[in-house]
UniProtKB/TrEMBL annotation:
This is Y-family DNA polymerase. Residues 3-196 form the UmuC domain. Signal peptide: none annotated. Keywords: DNA damage, DNA repair, SOS mutagenesis, SOS response. The lineage of its organism: Bacteria, Pseudomonadati, Pseudomonadota, Betaproteobacteria, Burkholderiales. GO terms for molecular function: damaged DNA binding; DNA-directed DNA polymerase activity. GO terms for cellular component: cytosol. It comes from the Bacteria.
DNA sequence: TCTGGGGTCCTAGGACCC
DNA sequence: TCTGGGGTCCTAGGACCC
C-alpha cells in the first residue's frame, strides 16, 4: 500500500492570513472559546515557545514584547476553507479519507510516476487556489505517512533538523533502509501517531527515546505493556498496514455540546440556562446527522486550575423512554439530570450535555413505536433548524427549553475586530 | 482575574446468568 | 470442612486523536 497525508500548516492561522496578509511573518495565535487557550500557532508563535493549549493570559505578554496577535476562532470560516482544500486534494489519488478539518489521507497505491513531484504540484495548487500552505507525507502505511508528514513539516520549520530535500513533501516509501534508520533515529518517540504523553513517558523510562528505539522493541513486549492499539502502531511502523483508509466514516456514535464558562457559575438557574442551551445545540446536531438518542449524560464541574476552590465534578446518565431527537424532550431530561447532581456552594467552571447511543430510527429495537411521538414535532424541529441555518443561530428556539440570552456569559468580546469577509466574497484565483 | 471542545477505542471489573 | 467456571453485558476510566 501507499498512502499520503496532506496536512495544512498551522491551519487556523493560515486560514486567517488568507484575508489578512498583514498577519504574514508575525507571531499569531488563534484562541478557543472565551479566548481561553491557543488552538493554533503560526511558526513565529511556535518559535516564541508558545505551546498548544497554552492559556492566553500566560502568553499575552508577547503582545507588547514581540507583537503577538491573538484572534478569536472563526470555525465557520475554517470549515469552508477545509472543504475547498479537501476537494482539491481528492484529485491526488483514487480514494480519500477526510481525517480532520485540516488533514486528508489519500490512497496512492499503484499510482505510477514521481509521487514527490506530483505532491509538489498539488501543494502549489492548494497554495494558489486557496492560499493555505500544506505539507505532504507519503509512506506504506497511514502511520508512516503521518511520520513522513511530520518530517516534511519539521524540516521546513526547523532547518537542519532533517535533510533539506525532505521539506514540504517527504516520501518514506522510496528511501533505503539506511536512510530511514537515519531519520527514525532523529525523531522522538512521542512524534509517532498513536503515542501520546503517558505512553511516551513510560517509554522514556525504559530508555526508548526515538522512533528507532521503539521499532527495535519486540511486538510481544509492546503488546504486553501497552495493548493491541500500540502494537498496531508498532506493526505499521514496520510497514504492515493495519489501519485501513476509511472513505465514508460511520455516523457519530455520540454527540456532545460542552463549554467552559467565562467566569465561575454558582447558582442553579444559570446552570439550567446553560444546560438548556447545550441540549438544544446537541439536539440540532443529531438531527443534522439524522440520528436519535436513547441516553444522555449531563456533567458539571469546578475548575481544576483554581487550586484553592473546593473541587466537585459529577456526571449522570439518563436513559430515555424512547429514541428521540426532540429538543424539548432532551432538554427536559438534561435538566432533570442536572437537578440530581447540582450541589450548592461550588464555583462551576464547565458543563455539558452528551447524547449517547445514537441510532438511525426513532423506533426502539424490536418494538413498534405506538407512542404519540411526534412526527409533527420532528418536522417542527427540522423547520426550526432550517430557519436557524439561514438566518443565524438562535433566530428561533423552544420557549420551554428556558433559553434566555445574556445571563450566563460565555463569549467575551473579540480581541480583534470581528472578521466579516464571507467565503463567497473571497477572490478565487485560477491557474 | 483569565486554562478548549469535540471525538474514538480499549480494558478492567462488577452484575448476572446458566 | 470443602464453595465453579465461563459467557455476556454494562459502566467507568484511561489512553489516544485533532
Amino acid at each position: 500500500m501507499t498512502y499520503a497525508l496532506i496536512d495544512a500548516n498551522n491551519f487556523y492561522v493560515s486560514a486567517e492570513r488568507i484575508f489578512r496578509p498583514s498577519l504574514e511573518g508575525i507571531p499569531v495565535v488563534v484562541l478557543s472559546n472565551n479566548d481561553g487557550c491557543c488552538v493554533a500557532r503560526s511558526n513565529e508563535a511556535k518559535a516564541l515557545g508558545i505551546k498548544m493549549a497554552d492559556p492566553w493570559f500566560k502568553v499575552k505578554h508577547f503582545n507588547e514584547s514581540h507583537g503577538l496577535v491573538g484572534l478569536s476562532a472563526n470555525f465557520e470560516l475554517y470549515g469552508d476553507i477545509s472543504d475547498r482544500i479537501a476537494s482539491i486534494t481528492a484529485g491526488y489519488g483514487h480514494r480519500q479519507e477526510i481525517y480532520s478539518i485540516d488533514e486528508s489521507f489519500i490512497d496512492l497505491t499503484g499510482i505510477r510516476g514521481d509521487l514527490v513531484e506530483r505532491g509538489f504540484k498539488l501543494r502549489s495548487r492548494i497554495l494558489q487556489w486557496v492560499g493555505v500552505p500544506c505539507c505532504i507525507g507519503i509512506g506504506e502505511t497511514k502511520t508512516l505517512a503521518k511520520l513522513a508528514n511530520h518530517i516534511a513539516k519539521t524540516s521546513e520549520r526547523k532547518p537542519g533538523s532533517y535533510p533539506r530535500n525532505l521539506a514540504q513533501v517527504c516520501n518514506l516509501s522510496t528511501l533505503s533502509p539506511e536512510e530511514k534508520e537515519y531519520l527514525f533515529a532523529r525523531t522522538e518517540v512521542n512524534d509517532i501517531w498513536g503515542i501520546g504523553r503517558q505512553i511516551s513517558q513510560q517509554l522514556q523510562a525504559l530508555n526508548v527515546k526515538t522512533v528507532q528505539d521503539f521499532m527495535r522493541l519486540s511486538s510481544s513486549l509492546v503488546r504486553a505493556h501497552w495493548g493491541v492499539v500500540v502494537e498496531r502502531t508498532h506493526r505499521e511502523l514496520h510497514g504492515t498496514s493495519c489501519i485501513t483508509l476509511d472513505e465514508a466514516p460511520a455516523p457519530r456514535q455520540e454527540i456532545a455540546c460542552t463549554r467552559s464558562f467565562g467566569r465561575p457559575v454558582t447558582d442553579l438557574d444559570t446552570l439550567r440556562e446553560a444546560i438548556s442551551t447545550f441540549a438544544t445545540t446537541a439536539a440540532q446536531k443529531i438531527r443534522k446527522q439524522g440520528s436519535y438518542t436513547t441516553r444522555l449524560m449531563v456533567f458539571i464541574r469546578t475548575s481544576p486550575f483554581r487550586k484553592h476552590d473546593e473541587q466537585y465534578s459529577r456526571a449522570i446518565t439518563i436513559p430515555l423512554r424512547r429514541p428521540t431527537a426532540d429538543t424539548h424532550y432532551i432538554a427536559q431530561a438534561a435538566l432533570a439530570g442536572l437537578s440530581q447532581i447540582y450541589l450548592k456552594g461550588y464555583n462551576y467552571a464547565k458543563a455539558g450535555v452528551h447524547l449517547l447511543e445514537l441510532q438511525s430510527t426513532a423506533t426502539s429495537q424490536g418494538e413498534l413505536d405506538l407512542d404519540n411521538d411526534p412526527q409533527d414535532r420532528t418536522t417542527l424541529m427540522t423547520a426550526m433548524d432550517t430557519l436557524n441555518d439561514r438566518y443565524g443561530k438562535g433566530t428561533i428556539g423552544i420557549a420551554s427549553a428556558g433559553i434566555r440570552k445574556g445571563t450566563w456569559h460565555m463569549k467575551q468580546e473579540r480581541r480583534t475586530p470581528a472578521y466579516t469577509t464571507r467565503w463567497e466574497d473571497m477572490p478565487i484565483v485560477r491557474a
